[in-house]
Amino acid sequence: MPPSINYHLNKACNYSCKFCYARFEDSAEYLGRGMLPKAQQLEVVRQIAAAGFEKITFAGGEPTLVPWLAELVATAKDAGMTTMVVSNGSRLDAAAFDAFGGKLDWLVISIDSADDGTHLAIGRAQKGKTQSAAKYRATADLARHHGIRLKMNTVVNRLNVDEDMSELIAQMAPERWKLFQVLPIDGQNDGYVEELEITRAEFDAFVARHRGLADAGIVVVSESNEAMTGSYAMVDPAGRFFDNTMGAHTYSRPILEVGIREAFSQVSFDLETFKARGGEYDW
């Protein structure tokens, strides 16, 4: 098993990003309200910790829509894991950060542009309204004020591939900025993502355009489609491991049904690709 794992807690999201690979409509038979009950989610976290994972990233959907997110984070932290939350940031304010009670180590903010119009076109918005650059900066500042380390994620796609986000990223000053080449996944974003796909050369050009951020102490990490495939240990909202090696999601039996090691053995994972894409770092 790798040292890190991503737990996608829920299907629900208040945004509608066209490229989203984590819609989990194919998990409906296992889910009532789009996620496991609180007690079962807590047990999944305990089993993840007991299996020896060092870092857990809570994702979604949008994980801040889970009412007991802070308790899940605390359970993971108290079990000895480094804790992360990936969020669009729209629901994070001072009270939300206070609720984590010092148990959250990292916040990962998903942001794809410095331009409101681009975010609207991507679908990173709710009811036609997206976050301003000032709101993103304020969220980053709040995280640091609460002693939380900062990362940022950007999906490079047809709508932002020619953009230079250097100024905004430098202002937000994350420790790490991860760039993903938009990844098509059958059954998740097909019918939406096709108009957003880019070539590897276009992705590499976007990465190169932002290499200067290293001078500001920001580590820029790039992940092409090849680097992302089969290199993540991921759990879905139904508590099953899943992989993307076949261009679609393949799922294990539920962890709470067969145990974490048996469930993990039922999906594909490439440890060497995980290491090659920089999956291990000082967290």
TrEMBL record:
The keyword Phosphoprotein does not apply. It comes from Bradymonas sediminis. This is S-adenosylmethionine-dependent nucleotide dehydratase. It comes from the Bacteria. The keyword S-adenosyl-L-methionine applies. PROSITE patterns: RADICAL_SAM. PANTHER family: RADICAL S-ADENOSYL METHIONINE DOMAIN-CONTAINING PROTEIN 2, S-ADENOSYLMETHIONINE-DEPENDENT NUCLEOTIDE DEHYDRATASE RSAD2. One of its GO terms (molecular function) is metal ion binding.
